[in-house]
Specification:
- 2 copies of one chain form a homodimer.
- In chain A, strands 1, 2, 3, 4, 5, 6, 7, 8 and 9 form a 9-stranded mixed β-sheet that branches.
- The first copy, chain A, is built from 3 helices and 9 strands; from the N terminus they run βαββββαβαβββ.
- The radius of gyration of chain A is 15 Å and the shape is globular.
- The longest helix of chain A has 11 residues.
- Chain A is of the alpha+beta class.
- Chain A has one domain: 2,3-Dihydroxybiphenyl 1,2-Dioxygenase, domain 1 (Roll).
- In chain A, 20% of the residues lie in helices and 35% in strands.
- In chain A, strand 3 and strand 4 form a beta hairpin.
- The interface between A and B is large, with 41 and 41 residues.
- Chains A, B: Its EC number is 5.1.99.1.
- Chains A, B: It catalyses: (R)-methylmalonyl-CoA = (S)-methylmalonyl-CoA.
- Chains A, B: It is an enzyme of class 5 (isomerase).
- Chains A, B: InterPro entries: Glyas_Bleomycin-R_OHBP_Dase (IPR029068), MeMalonyl-CoA_epimerase (IPR017515), MMCE/EMCE_epimerase (IPR051785), VOC_core (IPR037523).
- Chains A, B: One of its GO terms (biological process) is L-methylmalonyl-CoA metabolic process.
Chain lengths: 134, 134
């Protein structure tokens, strides 16, 4: 069912410092920052030859990554995102297997403008897991 | 400097359950388990079209992932691994930038039989980061 690894998301409290690490120290190609107010994050994309790393900084009140950064002030890997062809079919299969889909279970439009669901970490190897329809 | 994302490593306390999640629930192609006694892990490879996920279970005494699993009993993302062309040049550049290389700073032969170094999470967005020469 799952296809490509779309991205690994790393939450940071200081996006400029994260960019300095990835662009400066690690020598990767990093995009300009983008505000995603609907998702409560400011993001840059680290463009690797086969996938991307997204560095996320909290934006605004109630950012979904604020609590994670309280627990992990140095930052850390927040989630992984796998691509699927059909988000509804994927969601229905997962629910039939007893896996928990977060929120109301309905796909939302994610930060890339495509339908996504997030899956409960406890059901996926302790890893917050996003599925994105591509 | 960094190239492809070679893998994302997810530590689990029960590899069979991890395989059931990735092969069964998520429908991915998963290899047979391999014991890596020199690295203190038993591993399966989740083969995605563009990269791989490695599920790691502790093997033997003093597994390097035992402490992580004590803190994260449900499992979790343990590290990411980026490819580099020249591990010595990469290590020297990172040290010149003030980044900390774990251990004695000398590349070791990693689980894929290739030279690797691990970088201090505090210097890399709170993320344990492996570089592998390919």
């Amino acid at each position: 069912m799952i296809g490509r690894l779309n991205h690994v998301a790393i939450a940071v409290s200081d996006l400029k410092a994260g960019v300095a690490t990835y662009a400066g120290v690690l020598g990767a190609k990093v995009s300009d920052p983008q505000d995603e107010p609907d998702h409560g994050v400011r993001v840059v994309f680290v463009e690797l030859p086969n996938t991307k790393i997204e560095l996320l900084e909290p934006l605004g009140e109630n950012s979904p990554i604020a609590k994670f950064l309280e627990k992990n002030p140095a930052g850390g890997i927040h989630h992984v995102c796998y691509e699927v062809d059909d988000i509804i079919a994927a969601r229905d299969k997962l629910k039939a297997e007893g896996a928990r889909v977060l929120g109301d279970g309905e796909p939302k439009i994610g930060a890339h403008g495509k339908p996504v669901v997030f899956l409960h970490p406890k059901d996926f190897c302790g890893t917050l897991t996003e599925l994105e329809q591509v």
